[in-house]
Specification:
With 215 residues, the protein is mainly alpha-helical. Helices cover 53% and strands 0% of the residues. It is built from 12 helices and no strands. The chain has helices at residues 16-26, 28-33, 48-57, 63-74, 82-86, 90-95, 100-115, 128-135, 143-152, 165-175, 183-190, 197-208. It is globular, with a radius of gyration of 18 Å. The two termini are 28 Å apart.
């Protein structure tokens, strides 16, 4: 039986159940939301390069369009890896639906991984802000993308992505009856979520869109 080299094996965080119990005690909104989604929880694809490459491909286009482009792009190399991406022809990547800028970003990402310019093996020992500082040095990756990486790949439990419009909209809807919410308002609400801001954020996202997000 042949094995798809791009096959995804999803991992889930060990702290999830404990976090849900903690948040349900601390926050009335989450106490109501958490039971609505059963056993569903955050999942990681387990491959750092693929996670970041997917986030670049998906910038400024719809989730559906991003999935289509990613599927075309992922078929170009035998396996999606930094070394294989560096061997791809620009024309082939453009034919898959990638803009010239996104191709530049993907090549820069592959170069950072391939050259050892980023310390993948050290990430487990590094703090969240240290990892963000390293990732934003790659073209096409800003703080929001780095925070999504911390949540969806490294499954860090206490990330609060205040630049995320879904989180801000979800806080507005669930805590302020739809009224506009400032970053300081959001930070105040999230004070009760510490040390599980990532988990709370995931459930706030689910309140807007029941389908789980992954990167």
């Amino acid at each position: 039986m042949s094995v798809d080299p791009n096959q995804v094996v999803l991992a889930t965080p060990a702290y999830w159940k404990e976090a849900c119990g903690y948040l349900a005690k601390k926050d009335r909104v989450l106490k109501r939301l958490i039971p609505q989604f059963g056993d569903a929880c955050l999942q990681s694809r387990g491959d750092a390069f693929t996670t970041l490459a997917r986030s670049i491909v998906g910038q400024q286009i719809s989730v559906k369009a991003a999935q289509t482009v990613w599927e075309r792009f992922a078929k170009l190399p035998r396996k999606v890896s930094p070394a294989n991406v560096l061997k791809l022809k620009v024309d082939d990547m453009q034919a898959a639906g990638l803009s010239a800028r996104k191709i530049e970003y993907l090549v820069d990402l592959a170069l950072h991984f391939d050259s050892g310019a980023i310390h993948v093996d050290a990430w487990q020992r590094m703090g969240d802000e240290e990892i963000i500082a390293e990732l934003v040095g790659i073209r096409g990756i800003g703080r929001w993308t780095a925070e999504m990486f911390l949540i969806f790949h490294l499954m860090r439990p206490n990330v609060l992505p205040l630049d995320d419009i879904g989180l801000i909209n979800g806080i507005s809807r669930n805590y302020f009856s739809g009224d506009p919410v400032s970053r300081s308002d959001a930070r105040e609400v999230a004070a009760a979520w510490d040390p599980y801001c990532s988990v709370a954020t995931w459930y706030i996202w689910r309140s807007l869109d029941p389908l789980p997000v992954d990167y």
